[in-house]
């Protein structure tokens, strides 16, 4: 591939990696990772509410990695409340799992920035081999793919298996019991999937630039043809 086209591909990869830095940083600061509805089970059972009457006991909840808000309804109007995971809910959430999500988000930001720098370094400089050359481009993008998949998996397990929404809704509640009615991941969660796909695209761009995948066996040169070439 001509050197100019290779530089262009590396520049595109650098811009995409830097975009991932901004996207993940913005996603971490929002409260739009998950949204859902919670049912005031105690209030609904007291009046034996069914069908449309359940709407009076249906509240809403949305949260991210640091903060969120909930609207509790138990038949007497809504009670909006904002909350923070740190330090308000440290006793209610699976702190190790939630901390792992934050940790891998931070690692994803760092290595996306590293990948962006290495793309530009390979585009405008003469990198030496190992981590400054093609191997580094593959390595940093592969690490970003792993981290983004871990963020999605850990957050999904925190929500589904540890019933994070119910723990938030029932925190410091002594009179009412709340039960999750519906949940769906919001757009900040899907931004992490966008990051994963972007780094996967970067790996394909590196291969498009003519750089072989790591550990791929190089084709052995034909010794006989080389000897015949020397004769002429």
Helix content estimate: 40-55%
> Domains counted in the coordinates: how many?
1
CATH architecture: Up-down Bundle
Radius of gyration: 25 Å
Strand order, largest beta sheet: 4-3-2-1-5
Instruction: Report on the biggest sheet.
Output: 5 strands, antiparallel
Number of strands: 5
Helix and strand element order: HEHEEEHHHEHH
Report how far apart the termini are: 28 Å
Low-confidence stretches: 218-232
Beta fraction: 15-25%
Provide a count of the helices.
Answer: 7
Structural classification: alpha+beta
Q: Give the rounded overall mean pLDDT.
A: 86
Describe what this molecule looks like in 3D.
- It is a multi-pass membrane protein.
- Its main location: membrane.
- It is found in: Membrane.
- This is Clarin 1.
- It holds the Pfam family Clarin-2.
- The structure is a single chain.
- The chain is α+β, with helices and mostly antiparallel strands and 232 residues long.
- It has one domain (3-213): Up-down Bundle (Butyryl-CoA Dehydrogenase, subunit A, domain 3), CATH 1.20.140.150.
- The chain is 54% helix and 15% strand.
- The protein contains seven helices and five strands.
- It has helices at residues 3-28, 41-46, 95-124, 134-160, 164-169, 187-208, 223-230; strands spanning 34-40, 58-63, 67-73, 78-84, 178-185.
- A five-stranded antiparallel sheet has the order 4-3-2-1-5.
- A hairpin with a 4-residue loop joins β3 and β4 (78-84).
- The longest helix is centred in the middle third of the chain and has 30 residues, at 95-124.
- It is elongated and about 75 Å long.
- The two termini are 28 Å apart.
